Amino acid sequence: MAGPRPLQVPVREKPHPSRGGNAYDQAMRAAAMAGRIELGIPGLTPSVRSVERCNHRLANEGHFLPYLPHGNHRPAGLVGTDRFLLLLFRLAYPRATAAECAAFIFRNSI
């Protein structure tokens, strides 16, 4: 059984825009985020929200590579810390009910 797809996976190489890739390569993105160039049309610059998002990603992850697209679908199951907590709880208490598992995850996830 396969688990849910990982979220926020940076993509290094993007295909050509005609095959679903991003129109801007990383050098142009870096220059735009540094505020040195305008994007094609005079007066057109990245939105404030795009700059904030890229600066946040650069500060927290050390890059602002685009993430692998997931189609705006939330994961169907537990991912990350919640999945790990469920595993630990089920190992410690194999006969626990679903409500007890949910309560444990709720109390311990921050």
Descriptive keywords:
110 residues; mainly alpha
How would you summarize this macromolecular structure in one to three sentences?
Helices cover 42% and strands 0% of the residues. By secondary structure, it is mainly α.
Structure commentary:
The chain has 110 residues and is mainly alpha-helical. It is 42% helix and 0% strand. The chain has 4 helices and no strands. The protein has helices at 26-33, 48-61, 80-92, 98-108. The longest helix has 14 residues, at 48-61. The radius of gyration is 20 Å and the shape is elongated. The two termini are 27 Å apart.
Give the SSE map:
Layout: H1 26-33, H2 48-61, H3 80-92, H4 98-108
Helix pairs in contact: 3-4
Structural class: mainly alpha
Estimated share of beta-strand residues: under 5%
Shape: elongated
Oligomer: single chain
- Return the average pLDDT rounded to an integer: 75
Number of strands: 0
Determine the N-to-C terminus distance.
Answer: 27 Å
Biggest sheet architecture: none
* Low-pLDDT sequence parts: none
Which percent range fits the helix content? 40-55%
The number of helical segments is 4
Q: How many whole angstroms does the radius of gyration measure?
A: 20 Å
Q: Order of SSEs, N→C?
A: HHHH
